[in-house]
Amino acid sequence: MPKTLRIVLLSVLSGVLGLATLAAVLGSGFAVTMSQGFHVTAPAAMTPAPRASSDKEDRIPVAILLGANGSVATDVLGPYGVLASSPRFHVFTVSVRREPVALSGGLTAIPDYSVKDVLDGVAPQPAIIVNPAMSDP
């Protein structure tokens, strides 16, 4: 085998192995983070769901879903922060139950409404639904 061809093949092989190693390290780090980052830190006292009020009728209702087994914090808090900062939107969170829900990074959120609240008319009917990444919907 010519020396130049051998050098090129070794260089390509080194690059492929380097990329494979990097992908494995990043993948395992992601897997560990996702498996350990969804824990409810402390139970909170539950309050009844607030009734949908008429002063919010002129705003667009936006429901942000929270996974019962955890959601990615940036996917929940990013849209929430952007939409809630506008007076045109009424933003609220919805989950299967009104119990604390784990967000990645050790955060805990208590949903404003349950799915039953939305179906029973206790919560506003959302015009927009934000579905963030969830650990296990």
Automatic annotation (TrEMBL):
<dbReference type="GO" id="GO:0008233">
    <property type="term" value="F:peptidase activity"/>
</dbReference>
<dbReference type="InterPro" id="IPR029062">
    <property type="entry name" value="Class_I_gatase-like"/>
</dbReference>
<protein>
    <submittedName>
        <fullName>Intracellular protease/amidase</fullName>
    </submittedName>
</protein>
<keyword id="KW-0378">Hydrolase</keyword>
<dbReference type="GO" id="GO:0006508">
    <property type="term" value="P:proteolysis"/>
</dbReference>
<keyword id="KW-0645">Protease</keyword>
